[in-house]
């Protein structure tokens, strides 16, 4: 653990926020259309309607802000899921959030002929939330109630179920496949700020409540018996955490599609710096998640320029070696 006291952790968090702002600035400036910092400043101070100014205001600024918010949501959701399940490989994928949201999108396209990105946002948000509820209900069946292993298995089962249904439906309808394929890959390209505004109030509240709940998560991680002996209502804490995961992960999937590995990578990196205190893990995960997603999105613009690859593909490219390392480390342990 590098940051061993409060002063160092506060300093580190401030520096991380500054770096996040730098990444947002780079995301606004860098890309196929050649722009500079001066051009970006002029686009907001003295907009002239030029192509460069339009790209900065209407494309890159929304993309940068959405990337930062989605990364923050995935970072916190991943950290909270790993705390609840005590599974170092837990992420929004493990609870089937991505699969559930994707299934609801495909159903909306095929049955109700929905083709609006804003409609996709709310449908995916509802689908992700309902999926988390289903996982909690399945994981709570039995005498022992909700346990980490049961919740993990329930999430894996739900994910497999929805993924199979989605693939089956897409095989039957090529039109739906064309419409939803890019969204299923995970991308912040082409998203408008209006899409973010729709779910931002819920996400903001969920982030704040997550920070408040962090102390109770610390106690819960000491063991349920210890937590109960200290007067904690463990079921209420788990239920609240589940709702927060649904909002954060569901909101991220609703805005940008299913982006993998951010929720797995970030909590491990953060714990290496601040230890196992979730009062620090959650804020650091929010900032680091935004940084990782923005860096991945910037890199995705240059891999096959002038074309771009979805940021979900880039995070998978970055995260797969890390995932293999964690899996091998767990197997040895």
TrEMBL record:
Keywords: Cell membrane, Membrane, Transmembrane, Transmembrane helix, Transport. Its main location: membrane. Pfam families: FecCD. It comes from the Bacteria. It is a multi-pass membrane protein. Coiled coil: none annotated. One of its GO terms (biological process) is siderophore-iron import into cell. The chain crosses the membrane at residues 12-32, 64-83, 95-114, 120-139, 151-172, 195-214, 281-303, 309-327. It is found in: Cell membrane. InterPro entries: ABC_BtuC-like, ABC_transptr_permease_BtuC. One of its GO terms (molecular function) is transmembrane transporter activity. One of its GO terms (cellular component) is plasma membrane. The keyword Transmembrane applies. Belongs to the binding-protein-dependent transport system permease family. FecCD subfamily. This is Iron ABC transporter. It comes from Priestia veravalensis.
